[in-house]
Write a structure and sequence with these properties.
This protein is of the alpha+beta class. The protein contains 2 helices and 5 strands; from the N terminus they run αββαβββ.
Length: about 90
């Protein structure tokens, strides 16, 4: 299952909330707005660098939606939603 399918399946899940033992980033804006990205096991540097998520929902089908953290925005530790990634554009 692709990353897109995993993200989108959570929208249809009757209990889409975060799993208690996992760590998530909430995606804000753009084509994947409102979805949770599982970042369990990511290093701090990986989280701080943001992500380019392959999606058919971007401006370019098969392209990537870019999401970044905002500098200085607090991040929590432990399970649940620990940070937010904000949409910053698309790339082919």
């Amino acid at each position: 299952m692709s990353g897109d399918e995993q993200l989108l399946n959570r929208r249809d899940d009757p209990h889409p909330g975060p799993l208690p033992e996992r760590i998530y980033a909430e995606l804000i804006g753009g084509p994947l707005d409102g979805l949770l990205l599982d970042i369990y096991g990511w290093r701090t540097e990986e989280v701080d660098d943001g992500v380019a998520l392959a999606t058919e929902l971007s401006r370019w089908p098969g392209g990537r939606a870019l999401y970044d953290r905002r500098p200085g925005e607090p991040r929590t530790s432990g399970p649940g939603v620990s940070c937010r990634f904000y949409y910053s554009g698309d790339t082919p």
